[in-house]
Structure formats: structure tokens, C-alpha cells
Amino acid sequence: MTQQQASLSPLKRANPSDSDALIHCIYDSSHELMQFMFGDKATALAVLRKLYSHSSGLFSYRFGWTYSQHSEIKGAVLGYSRHQLKQQEFMGAIQLLIAIPLTLKAHLLTTVRKALEGYVPLPSKEAFYINNIAVCESARDKGSVQRSLMLFACN
């Protein structure tokens, strides 16, 4: 792909400035899990915003790709290789403990930890683990964004 083609592509590496658009997409892509972990949407979004801004950890912008139409983010893929997942798990856990409110720490360390134990098996050596395929609310039910993100994630 030439530099000009890359600049016209709807898929781009995510960056920290994408957080406002992406944290809502990420939340919506697994809202039941987010509700279980954080209790309410506002808390989950605040935690996701903190985690997304880091250059490491499982929700870091470094592991995301955005999909845009007409210069507006419509969706994202967040995922890792086996090596990246193993490398980021510990840092991601530390960052999560720092980012969540004190009132949720016991819940996260007991109930959530027990429920999610073994939840994310390591991908095979050459595979890519897709954490989230997130389609923003304005692009839902249209199909094209989700299809594009799925094709991207599978290649």
C-alpha cells in the first residue's frame, strides 16, 4: 500500500485523541461485562478513558485500529498477538487497579477475578486475539462498518 493509499484508507492506527469516540464503542461492544465489572456506565467509561490513554495495557490505544467514514470514527478493533497479550496482562491488571474507584477494588479482586479466571485463553502462536470489535452507535444496523472491521480483523 502506498503512502497515499494509506492516508485514504478508512482503517488507521488508533491514537490517544480518539478516546472520546472509541471508549463509547468499546463499552457498547461488551456492555454486560462492563456493567458486571464497574457497576454503571459512567464509572466504566471513566475507567476505560484512563486505560485507553496509556501506551501499554490491554485497553491501550496502541492495540487499536479505527474505522472512519467521512472523517468520523465509526468503529474500532482492539486486539493483540499472543506475545502482546502475554506482555500486557500484568501491566493491564495494575493499571486497572489504579484506575478503578476504591469502592470497586474488592469487587474486582474477588468476584470479577473469580468469574473471569480463564476467560481469555492465549491465542495460538501465530493467531491474533480480538478483544473488541466495536461499532459506534451512529453506524449500527448498516452492516458495512461491522463487515469492514471483521474483514480487517480476520486478515
Topology:
Layout: H1 3-8, E1 11-13, H2 19-29, H3 31-38, H4 41-53, E2 64-69, E3 72-81, H5 82-99, H6 102-116, E4 128-135, H7 144-154
Antiparallel strand pairs: 1-2, 2-3, 3-4
Q: Write the H/E string, N to C.
A: HEHHHEEHHEH
Spatial order of the strands forming the largest sheet: 1-2-3-4
Quick one: biggest sheet? 4 strands, antiparallel
Strand element count: 4
Terminal Cα span: 15 Å
Low-confidence stretches: 1-7
Q: Round the mean pLDDT to the nearest integer and report it.
A: 82
How does the overall form come out from the CA principal axes?
globular
Share of helical residues: 40-55%
Put simply, the count of helices is 7
Strand content: 15-25%
Main structural class: alpha+beta
- CA radius of gyration is 16 Å
Give a summary of the structure in a few sentences.
By secondary structure, this protein is an alpha+beta fold. Helices cover about 55% and strands about 15% of the residues.
What does this structure look like?
- There is one protein chain.
- This protein is an alpha+beta fold.
- The chain contains 7 helices and 4 strands.
- It has helices at about 5-10, 20-30, 30-40, 40-55, 80-100, 100-115, 145-155, and strands at about 10-15, 65-70, 70-80, 130-135.
- The chain has a 4-stranded antiparallel beta sheet.
- Helix 2 (about 20-30) crosses helix 4 (about 40-55) and helix 4 (about 40-55) packs across helix 5.
- The longest helix is centred in the middle third of the chain and has 18 residues, at about 80-100.
- The protein is globular.
- The two termini are about 15 Å apart.
- Mean pLDDT is about 80; it is low at about 1-5.
